[in-house]
Amino acid sequence: xxxxxxGVMLADVAVRTADSDPxxxxxxxxxxxxxxxxxxxxxxxxxxxGALQLAAHxxxxxxxxxxxxxxxxxxxxxxxxxxxxxVTIVTLFAPMHECVHRTAFASRRANDAIGWIAGILxxxxxxxxxxxxxxxxxxxxxxxxxxxxxFPKAKNRREYLTELSGLTFWWRRILDYxxxxxxxxxxxxxxxxxxxxxxxxSMSAQLAIYLAAAAAIGFGYDGVLIYWFIPVVLAQPFLRAxxxxxxxxxxQDQNGLSNTRTTAASFPIRLLMWNMPFHAEHHLxxxxxxxxxxxxxxxxMNGSILSSWVNSCADAHLxxxxxxxxxxxVVGMGSNGWRAVRRVFALADAPTRISHAAGDDWVxxxxxxVFAVGHPGPLGLTNRPLPQQLADxxxxxxxxxxxxxxxxxxxxxx
Length: 414
Hints:
Blueprint: H1 36-42, H2 47-71, H3 75-90, H4 93-101, H5 108-122, H6 126-138, H7 157-165, H8 167-181, H9 196-218, H10 223-244, H11 267-272, H12 279-284, H13 293-298, H14 303-325, E1 329-333, H15 334-344, H16 354-357, E2 361-363, E3 369-373, H17 378-383, H18 386-405
Parallel strand pairs: 1-3
Antiparallel strand pairs: 2-3
Helix pairs in contact: 2-3, 3-10, 4-5, 4-6, 8-9, 14-15
C-alpha cells in the first residue's frame, strides 16, 4: 500500500500508507498504525457535516435530473443523461454504507433513517446489510466466512463482464429479497435469529415501495421509469466497477494492509462515494467518519496530530521498509516525507524544515546517502526555484549512477 516500492524515492511512503476502520475492531496487523488520540479526533461524528455531504449528493441528483428533463425530447441525448443521473443514484449506496456504520451522522436516528432511504433508492436494504457488512469487516477475505465471498470472485474476462454488467446484482435481488421478506434467513450465519423479524419487516416495506413504483408505471406515470428505474440499470456497471476493485486480487488473510485496496478516484467520484475509494483506510479503522478519511489518508490535520501521525507511520512502515530494502540512496520529498526520513535515519543535525533542508544531502550512520527534496508542486517552487530543483535531481541521479557502478555498497558488507 505504498506509493514507492524501490530504494530511491521512499519520500512520502510514511504518510501515504493505508490506515483506517467502526464495526469490528481493526485486525492486529494494523491496530497500532495510528495513535489512539488521533483516531479519537477523527472518529468524532457530526450531524452538520453529514447533512452538508448529503445535501451535496442530493444537489447532484437534482442537477442530473434536470439534464434528463431537458433531454427527454431526444432519445439520443436522453440515454446518456439518464446514465449520468443514474450514477448519482446508485452511489447512494455510499451514504447507506456510512449510515450502516453509523458514522455519517452523530444521531443514531438520522443514520438509520437516511441509511434506509438511501438503500431503497440504490436497491440495497440497510437493515439486512448491517449484519452482512459486519461479518465482511470481521472476516474480510476469509473464503469460509466473508459474506462477500459466498459467490466466487470473477476469474476470467467473461465473469468480469457479467459482474460489471450488473446482471448478478439484479438476479440476487430477485432471488434473495422475497426470501428475506418472508423471514427465510436461517441459512445465513451472519444474520442472528433476533434480527430476522426486523429484516423481514424492513424488506417487506421496501418491496412494497418497489411494487407501488411499478404500479405507478403501469398507470402511465413514466417518471418513475425515466428518473429512477432505467437510470439505476444504466449506471449499475459504474458502481460494480468501483466495488469490484476493493478486494479483488488482494490477499485472502486477515492482514488489513494487504486484503483491501484503496483506488485512485477523482473528486466527483470521491464526493458521490463519500470517500469510499479510500477503502483500505476504511477497513483498517471503520470508526473514522467518511468526512475524516481524507485526513487519515493525507495527514491534513493540525500540527500536533500531524506530527504524531507522521512519526508513528515512519516508525511502523518506513523504518522496516528501509531495513528490508537497504537502499543506498533515500530521498525525503516534501515536508512530511522529509520529516519521516529524517526521523528514520536519526539525522539530528539536519534542518527540521524542508524549506531549509531542500537541496542538501547527508550520509547516515549506516552509510545511506540521504537527500532532501522540496515539494514537487507550486509550493516547492516558492522555496526553491526550478533551476535549483533540476540541479537537485541531477545530483541525485549522479549519486544513483555512482552506487549502481559500485559492485558492493559499504552498507551491504560481505
